[in-house]
## 1
Amino acid sequence: MPPRASKKPRRSAPTITADPAPKVRLGEGTSIDLPTELYFEILSYFPVVPFETTVHHSYDSGFHLNVKTLERQDALRTMSQVSRSWRAFFLPMLWENVEMAGCRSGPGTGGWFKQCADALIQKGNGLSKTPELAKYVKRIRLVMSQSSIHKTLPALKALMTSCSGLKTIHIHFAHSDTAKQFSAEFKPGQDSFPSVETLILPIQAHALLRACPNAKRLTCNRGRGSQLITAMRAGCKHLEMVEGFYFYQEDNMFKKLVKAAPNLREIKLSCLPSEDVLKKLQTSFKELKAIEFPGVYLADNNEAMERTMTLLKKNLRNCKVTFKANAYAVEKGTATTKVVHIGA
């Protein structure tokens, strides 16, 4: 006979459902309990990649900067979203430096030219519509390729127009065939950005220099620089420092610089010029107070350095002379920068 069926109803195992995790909201007083010094200590682990210099060995990937460049802005964005008080503290620091030359890596990120173009379009157009953020911007860095250039140049112009406190423009790289587009977008007499004081530009962006009449510091980071000298003569009357120009001898380019910026106070050369140029530096630039030479040309030749210093001491007065060692060599401890003060 088959076994008798149990009269007790069969019970199914109870279904266990997890309650949603409670949302934890930080009180507005949370950040007040932390001293300001602690915030800056945290941020010190996310250093700013300098906007006023051209060489970044740890970050440079050639046409663009690598993902490490974006770590600080990622950290600042995260902290600015914690609470209202944190937002008030970190938001100005987040938008003080607008980084558009850094690229991420990995699946789905796209090529460097597309990433840089998208960043410029998004941030340029976005800041032009949000003056409450644009007022914080002091420095911008970007890359200008042919990717969507019909959108990137107008976005750059809109960004510069909106940021009334903008001080530094750094174009890390520009494709060689973008000069005409720059000239078409930034037209002499129509566009002016008087707040800009420091520019780091490739020669393709010479039209942008014309639109910055109060520029004080100019660095040519790609090209010999003749186009920039022509532009500074047309629109920049207050330059105090130039860097990155090549003067092998007293050629037309040197003479053009003397006419374009006779009141220079500081010159940072990219090569060791001829004796004729060395003799005429201070007689050509009456206000010259500092000269910097690339130490790489002199590091292994003490006789050349001594000969150069002897010549400079005969022809300079009240001037600081710097033989700057290669940044990578300084990091490795294989070279040091030498500074000499020449008196009256």
## 2
Amino acid sequence: MSRENPPKPATLVFIDDIKPGNNSYKLKVQVMKLWKLWRSKIVVSIEMVLEDATGTRIHASIDEDLIQIYEGKLSEGVAFFISNFTLVNYATEYRTNPFPYKLTFYRTTNITPCDDFPSYLPNKYLKNFSEIHSGIFKNDVLIDIVGQIVHVGALTEIYAKGKQTNKLNVILRDETASNLTCTLWGDYGKQVIHYVEENNNSIVVCVVCFACVTEYKGVHGISNVFNATQLIFDPPGPHFDDFRSKLPKDDIVLSRDDGLSGSTVSWHDELFTKNPRKTLREILRTNEIGKYVTTATVKSVETNPRWYYVVCAVCEKTVHPIEENPGDEEGPVMFDCLQCNRNVTEVLAK
């Protein structure tokens, strides 16, 4: 009578050593980034980026039916041993690392606390500004960058994907004095504003992890991607100390636009309280740069040739007006945006 051989104990390895088709691995990892994926106000999965002691990362997912088992055991910064998991195909639009597979939890996946995980890990995924400007990166794999914040724009509210959201442009520079625009959506912009206001450092270094490379009119920048992106301000470690030491010694001062506080100014306050009122003659004669409120009567409008063009407020691509039908209810003028592939009402004149 034959007996089945007992399963072999899992072998402790690094992330680079694991391969699909073999479930007998054991990893020692830390949760670098964790977020929940929502659909119709329901959490359908927990998404994570795990990293081992060498700094290698792998994406991990917990499906909806297993969330209650593991949700209370995992959070950012928690280190643990994990075994009895599987590797599945990882081919989403934005991948958090180059591996074509990700780690998925079973109901029987075993995680146990780890008390001796390194406090400092090397970052293998940092890219140079020159590489980004060259346009060599595709958007299938997200990247990391490090830069000094030299300018913080105004926090603006725009209409995107059916709802109001915040947008903030931040200018970063590297040790060669090359600049890079980082566009932050949602609450990411508020993170920058809060840190800059709370820390009056002459030099603020920011690491943007899991950023998407963007391109507009041949100029490349970066942007956050949903909830996957991570911002780290003034990080410790030898690499970042070295970065600070190589920054230009020009004593540049971090500049900020009006509206940095993120508070929305009403039209009433904008017109009658915040800005001084002047006549057109006074504005033409003033030597002071600033915002002024004036009252004027439109005498005529030049329509040909048109001195402006209309763009989408979200993607800033040219849009075209949609002709209204006589029976349509009165409402805002609609424009067709080819880039966003939808009709929009929020537009800008350029």
## 3
Amino acid sequence: MMKIYHVEGMTCQHCVHAVKEAVEALPDVQEANVDLKTGTLKITGSVNENELKKAIEEEGYTLS
């Protein structure tokens, strides 16, 4: 299953890499694709939304 989220606060490719690494470290996430231009995060697999929000916030960004 694919889900799409919006991540606020990303400004560069380092941000993209940080979000991608944090999300792909979560259990049951098969793949994460981050688009800096649109601020979108596409996740393939299943994800606990509370864990996702926490992982994004620990990197310094906001999930909306």
